[in-house]
Predict the 3D structure of the following.
Amino acid sequence: MTTAMQTREPEMGLTFEKVWAMFQETDRKMQETDRRMQKLSEETAQQMRETAQQMRETDRKIQETDRKIQEVARHIKETNKQIGDLGNRFGELAEHLVAPNIVEKFNVLGFHFDDISTGLRQVLHDESTGQKIAEFDILLENGESIIGVEVKSKPSSDDVKDHVQRLRILRLNKDKKGDKRKIYGALAGAIMADAVKTAILKAGLYAITQTGDTVKIDIPKGSAPKAW
């Protein structure tokens, strides 16, 4: 008599073939891992080479920028020197363009100056410290009056304020010496904007402009020039 129950074959354990297959799979995975690690190492090395190249390029650019900065600084230094040299020639500008005609023009206005001084001789020093406190391009003098003249190629509103302060210093300097002569001021310019001329006249100064081979003196309208 046969039974209804079917017989089951016993499960087989690990065989050599299975173990060998596992080793082969493990070896394949290790080789794949090694390949990926090698690729990653090569990519990392390439990135490091590229980074080093970029750093060298950055360093080159920094050096180039530094060279350009030094070049600009040199040009600025040369320009400042040229500007300084130009500033030192304003005395010559005063002497050659303004001084030859200015005495005659002011004498027509009734001053009758007998002395004109130009250039660096007109530096005022503090008697206690010896420091320079003011400088005039031109000083016109007689027994009653002094006119301090500042000459600019293109005067500005700030030049007007500076010259007023310069005249105040001259007044204090003369007072200390007991010199009571009246002090007037004038601002001369080769090129002068209308707004600047208005500021000059409003401050009570004479405005001197170049016209051809002579100069023209404008007087504040409606009032006499200010005396310090």
